[in-house]
Design goal:
Layout: H1 13-27, H2 32-36, H3 61-64, E1 68-75, E2 78-81, E3 89-97, E4 106-109, E5 112-116, E6 125-132, E7 135-140, E8 152-157
Parallel strand pairs: 1-3
Antiparallel strand pairs: 1-2, 3-6, 4-5, 4-7, 7-8
């Protein structure tokens, strides 16, 4: 004669087994995509470095193909650009964090309210594409205190 597994245990075991089994079943309910997918961040996308920054103003995607690339290497506490003279046109600034602390790159000037990379961890890169017109532009790191420590450049576009 076969006996039930529950018949060999005290009376309180059956409700406990059902409660644990039900909790396990309920824990598995819901959308599995929420539990297993994390937000994807594109390190080359333009995004405000801080919540107080104005929305990024970038050139249309078609202009990015014709943009002149400028490398901006960021360290503690300096920004080095691959070129020092600029004429009016579209530029993609590729910022690389070669330092030991997080950095970002922000550009402000005529027609550019505030365009910034995301905060970049050491060794990471990001880029922004902007159309520069004649005038003076400020290029700086918006991470708290970095601008005041020397990560602040002024360029003139002719």
């Amino acid at each position: 004669m076969r006996r039930s597994l529950m018949s060999d245990h005290p009376i309180w075991v059956a409700p406990l087994v059902l409660a644990v089994g039900g909790a396990t079943l309920l824990a598995g309910c819901g959308s599995s995509s929420k539990a297993s997918s994390a937000p994807t961040v594109n390190p080359t996308s333009a995004a405000p470095a801080t919540s107080s920054a104005a929305p990024a103003t970038t050139a249309p995607a078609s202009s990015a193909a014709a943009a002149t690339e400028v490398t901006a290497t960021e360290t503690e506490f300096k920004i080095a650009l691959s070129q020092s003279t600029f004429t009016a046109g579209t530029y993609t600034f590729k910022a690389t964090n070669a330092g030991k602390f997080p950095h970002a790159l922000t550009i402000v000037g005529p027609g550019v309210a505030s365009v910034a990379t995301e905060n970049l961890s050491p060794g990471k890169s990001g880029s922004v594409t902007v159309t520069l017109t004649s005038g003076s532009y400020e290029i700086y790191c918006p991470v708290d205190g970095h601008k005041g420590l020397g990560m602040d450049l002024h360029v003139t576009v002719t």
